[in-house]
Design goal:
Blueprint: E1 4-9, E2 12-14, E3 22-23, E4 25-29, E5 32-37, H1 39-43, E6 46-54, E7 59-62, E8 64-69, H2 71-80, E9 82-83, H3 92-105, E10 112-117, H4 128-135, E11 140-144, E12 149-152, H5 154-159, E13 172-176, E14 182-188, H6 189-199, H7 204-221, E15 223-231, H8 233-244, E16 251-257, H9 263-270, E17 281-288, H10 325-337, E18 342-346, H11 349-365, E19 374-377, H12 383-392, E20 395-398, H13 401-414, H14 425-431, H15 449-457, H16 474-480, H17 483-487, E21 506-509, E22 526-531, E23 534-538
Parallel strand pairs: 1-6, 2-7, 8-15, 9-10, 10-11, 15-16, 16-17, 17-18, 18-19, 19-20
Antiparallel strand pairs: 1-4, 2-3, 4-5, 7-21, 11-12, 12-14, 13-14, 21-22, 22-23
Amino acid sequence: MPAADFVLLNGRIATMDAAGTECSALAALNGRIVALGEDAAIRDLAGPGTAILDAEGQRVLPGIVDSHAHPDAYAVRLRGWTLVSPDRAPNREALLRIIRDRCAALPPGRWAAFYRLNERQSGGYPTLDELDAASGGRPIFILRTDGHLGLANRAAFAACGIGADTADPAFGRFDRLPNGSFTGLVRETAAHVFLNAVHGQDSEAEIAEGMEMVQDQCLAAGITSVANSLTPSKAIRAYQAMRRDGRWRMRMGIIASGREEALIPHLIGAGIQSGFGDEWLRLIGVEWCPDCSTSGRTAAYWEPYLGTPVPGEPQPNTGMLLYEKEDLTRRATQAHRAGLQVMIEGVGDRGIDFALDVMEAALATYPVADHRMRVEHCCYVTPPILERLKRGGFVDSSATGFMDELGEAYVANRGQAAMRWMWPHRSLIDAGVPAPGHSDFAVCRVSPWTAIAAMVTRRSSTGADLDAREAVTPMEALRAYTWLGAWAQREEAEKGSLEVGKLADLILLDRDVLAIEGAAIAGTQVKATVVGGVLRHGA
């Protein structure tokens, strides 16, 4: 055998294989692992040109597989939007100051766009008058952290041709006060009106430019593979250009967007099926988003929301669904029959039931044993829903990132008792239901470590109690972000564990996340990230 081109020595490698194997060293050639074992044997595989990484006795894991995120949208926002998360805008005054400063710096007439507003931690929603005063007359749009709601000022309403007599769009709402005037808050497809206006001028080159920054952040967080939820055709083209130009440094799974009306029918017509591509860029499935946001009080539940309603919110409020069942069943069945892995978002129990109704109907029409259909986010998994997931062989694609950053809002909006079945990973594991974890960035932060900690501690970043009965071990939480993430996109033969023949994607950590107290996992720093045997982050 020729000399390895990459060798890691002196590590504490948790391979995450089925046997729970640990070792101290591994070797890779041409991007794949060729040997695992102890230092002496692996050192013999090195040659004059071998890159050697000394792990210095630290914990080594497979690279993180984030199985549902929005790197395309995040790329654009990193490049041209302004972040207003609670660490930047801890109160309403700070938020309005950021808006004023940004609007003053832009050329006249340009939209100003802001993202990751969490009104619960930033002093509540500003009024329309406050937005107008801060914006200096230019159109602005502020996307709430969940990506389902937003705030617009009067100039933005005017720029989009929305007047006092404009009807709400199907599956959306312009919130109004009792006198009929706008509050500024817009929900679901009503928010898309403003998003489309802001994103309308995005170019493939701008997506690619932003993706350089996204890749840097992912690699620094230990993510070697990410699945792009609801990927539009513009981003698919940008990614292919980056791959051709040698600008691709991590692995991407494309989940084609059902929001782009022609995209999935075109894939079906071209005969393109899940798995098309290579280990760097691959189509893994198709997705529709009929359910919404619990923290934003739009996700579909059978029982009404608790807590103080937002002005203009419908009462009683049980959330909303964004498709008619017959229509979505037709779409999903066509895709499933064509060999495309179907993924449907469901957040509340009513939303998850809706997604399962659609997928069960598709399978009844065209049965497939190993279908791996996924309910995306799949937050409120009550015992009857858990049984449906198990009976149908469905994947609970779990939005574990919400636990840490949005957990407090979930408690406030659904009640403490509901946390018993919110992201119930202990019950899912015990029932044998596969439940990979994901961040949904830019809804939540890129780093997986705070979410992994929340899975273990069942506490949010603000200390909200998420019910410790559903806590899991660090090993179980990491499995959700490695092997299960790969399995959920039919890539378990290539990634998710460190085994001979698999891709040499691995991370070196500053602490042993398998042995420390759960809360300490949140502060994990990644000392090195290796993708395909090439060091992509760290020293």
